From TrEMBL:
The keyword Disulfide bond does not apply. InterPro entries: BUG (IPR005064), Bug_dom1 (IPR042100). This is Tripartite tricarboxylate transporter substrate binding protein BugD. Residues 1-22 form the signal peptide. The lineage of its organism: Bacteria, Pseudomonadati, Pseudomonadota, Betaproteobacteria, Burkholderiales. Keywords: Signal. Belongs to the UPF0065 (bug) family.
Length: 324
């Protein structure tokens, strides 16, 4: 009886400590892990959101870039992190495609994380080096088909948004092209700017400024409608690729076991950040916008991840693309 009472007291003390921590959270700097190189589209989204969330929480949120293996290295680190609310994770659609792309993952994408909320849906653009010979998408398509053995397609590595878009694009046009994988979108874009590779499909958060400055050529956007900030850029559907549509969603997570009150505090801060006029304006400048408040919630992201895993699994299986 005495031992049982001692154990009960210990459990109550532990619960009381966790509850007290949740009540006072946060009391120190928070780290948000981005599983890609600095300068890429997910990194850009994360830094904008982190700054505004930090203002709401009255604590700094710093970004740590942990790139490699299509985002799975960063994800694995977060899955093993202490569930105390001081390690967060910003990832995109790749979080839902990794279970199908990788034969063995050191974590479970659905059960090893606490969803905080969706952040944004980002359109993608087909872009090429600035001296690419095609003037419009019709010429672009004809050129890459005629020169399929010479044209190079850059992506940010297996599982990245640019990899997924490229895979769908090549399937849609019935042409296999030489792909050049990089460790992140930033390095891939640098080589596109330098003319070392021919083209890529990348998020507007990474391409808009380069398109507007004339440093790269844009041939189409992957959404159903044209972008307000680039109204002259046709959709791929308009340009001659009927039904082609892909957008890259971003979500925010914490390690499994993070107290509900902490998760709720973070979700509330995320919702506030997505209403921040500066965040909304910067997103608009980059060709995207924050999700509705109802989607910036744990239950919405949980359901979305499940649905996206189910959507992409047969597509990836049919394509026969896997990573070790």
């Amino acid at each position: 009886m005495k031992i049982t009472l001692m154990r009960a007291a210990a459990c109550l003390a532990l619960f009381g400590s966790a509850f007290a921590q949740a009540q006072t959270y946060p009391t120190k700097t928070i780290t948000m892990i981005v599983p890609f190189a600095a300068g890429g589209p997910t990194d850009t989204v994360a830094r904008l959101v982190a700054q505004s969330m930090g203002n709401k929480l009255k604590q700094q949120i710093i970004i740590e870039n942990v790139g490699g293996a299509g985002g799975t290295i960063g994800a694995a680190r977060v899955a093993k992190a202490a569930p105390d609310g001081y390690t967060l994770f910003m990832h995109h659609i790749g979080h839902a495609t990794a279970p199908s792309l990788y034969r063995k993952l050191p974590y479970n994408a659905q059960t090893d994380f606490e969803p905080i909320g969706l952040v944004t849906d980002v359109p993608m653009t087909i872009v090429a080096r600035k001296d690419f010979p095609a003037r419009d998408f019709k010429e672009f398509l004809a050129y890459i088909k005629a020169n399929k053995d010479k044209v190079t397609y850059a992506n940010a590595g297996v599982g990245s948004a640019s990899h997924l878009c490229g895979m769908l694009f090549m399937t849609a046009i019935g042409t296999d092209l030489t792909t050049v994988p990089y460790k992140g979108t930033g390095p891939a874009m640098n080589d596109l700017l330098g003319g070392q590779v021919d083209f890529m499909c990348d998020q507007t958060t990474n391409t808009t400024s380069q398109i507007k400055s004339g440093k790269i050529k844009a041939y189409g956007v992957t959404t159903k409608t044209r972008l307000p900030n680039m109204p002259d850029l046709p959709t791929l559907n308009e340009a001659g690729l009927p039904g082609f549509e892909v957008a890259v969603w971003h979500g925010l997570y914490a390690p499994k076991g993070t107290p509900k009150q902490v998760v709720d505090t973070l979700s509330s801060a995320l919702q506030t950040a997505l209403k921040d006029p500066n965040v909304k304006q910067r997103f608009a400048d980059l060709g995207t916008e924050p999700v509705a408040e109802s989607r910036a919630r744990p239950e919405a992201l949980r359901a979305h991840v499940k649905a996206e895993i189910e959507r992409w699994s047969p597509i990836i299986s049919k394509a026969g693309v896997y990573a070790d």
